[in-house]
Write a structure and sequence with these properties.
Radius of gyration: 24 Å
CATH superfamily of the largest domain: Periplasmic binding protein-like II
Distance between the termini: 32 Å
Oligomer: single chain
Mean pLDDT: 92
Shape: globular
Amino acid sequence: MKKILILCSFLILTSCFKQDSKSTRNILKVPLSGEIRSLDPANAYDSISSTVIYQCYEQLYEYHYLKRPYTVTPLLAKELPMVSNDSLTYTIKLKENILYHPHPVFKGQKRYVKAQDFITQIKRLAYIPTNSNGSWLFSGKIVGIDEWRKKVGSDFEKFKSTKIPGLSAPNDHTLVFKFNKPYPQVLYALTMSFVSPMPIEVIEYHDNILNNVEIGTGPFTLNSNSNLANIKLDKFKDYRDSRYPAQGDRLAYSKGLLKDAGKQIPFLDGIHFKIIKEAQTRWLNFMSQKIDYLDIPKDNYETAVGPTGEITPELKSKNIHLQIYPSLTYWWISFNMRDPLLGKNKKLRLAIAHAIDYDKFIEIFTNNIGQRANSIFPPGIPGYSPSSKLPYEFNIEKAKRLLASAGFPEGKGLPVLNFDTRGTSTSHRQQAEFIQKQLEQIGIRMNIITNPFPTFLSKAENGKLQFWQDGWILDYPDVENVLQLLDSKNHSPGPNATFYSNPEFDRVFSELKELPDGPAKFRNMKKLEQMVIEDMPWVMQYYTRKYVLYHDHLKNFRPSDLIYNSFKYLKIK
């Protein structure tokens, strides 16, 4: 899904929240990490914006809140799809009486979801003026969608009148997809915010510019006084009858997470997002109960976690709890493969790869919580191998030899390289300075360019970066979601920020996308990894493990970096 910013950056809200305040006692206070880029589900593809969007917008399917491995279940769909014998046609029945949040274009009337609204939104993903980050989701997959994109161009009248052959709505509550080839990941795709239904009249009203607009069907709706710098959500008073899960896995039972089984959700009256830049400010806000949960900042790890991995007695005495869970988030250094210097000189990239002390980086910036990466794939997805190895390690002498072989002995003749940060916080600057000092040891000079997160994303999409720290939270637990980051078809506005292009990679990846989990898919997976290692658009760093603190008054809390729409299950007591 999405480009990552570790909880940091934006404005510190001036208002303070106290847990015993009558007006805010049933309001969830959530820390965010940076500027909210957009509320448009066609374009928001970062963890910060997604944290807000998934509370307001809903999709056909979602992940079961209390089951691991992750299990897809119906949300706006009535049931799982009916699939043809050739796996090319999916027929989905929709729930009835799904109500949109109020909007002026409805003129006070209730507007219910129709199957055509999903088609309209998928059109928006392919429509050139939308410039959607989600265009990759169905490009080349739905019958006729690529031809539709070319035919319609930027003509909105054609957008409305021209049909995509592979999408149809026989009635208001039936949606039919026809695919060119099998698409094993389609259920995962239909959980993503990109596929939130959208009324055509709202698109017309706003000229297809929905960055500051919210018109979902979810349990929470945007407070009328909100803006992108001060997000408040209110409980949607006309939300349909929806219930807390009645089943879960062993952990859900052992943690007492089924006490509210079968009760109507949401429990909260609203959500206030506190956008806080610095880690220590977040810590202080958490300790004074101005936010309800917090990823432990590295500087506070020893205060929070004892030597055996348990929460410290001091925090336990304050009724603070700790949850540790495996993450589908990981990090690497990316190179712009179109850059005339770095992109064209593999030995220079290798010199950089051997000049960085990854273990030290993990120690300093994760307090050794991070796990050194051994593959371009993260643990937790089928086909990942703990025995995989990467062809680079911290070795200053080898880095110097590679730099000389690249044509720049001791850095002589090498221009200053530009390293862009993905945020403006202290930690972003310190991480960049660490890499800068590492490279200085072999003679490489590096200029640090500090960016607010939306600026970083804009540069990434437009190929304006030279090299940078990159990261990914998987949209779904499938290797395809990793490899699509390197597919040449996913250059801007897609997620291929390195502009990596390898025809053989694209060919094998096209084969892999159609394969179910199993030996054939895993063989292709290893082939593709070897190509990436050989071409080296990425230098892998580490996999994230999450240590999250939360106050005792927060109930039903089960953190996940894949399930974004979890706030509807939470309760403050």
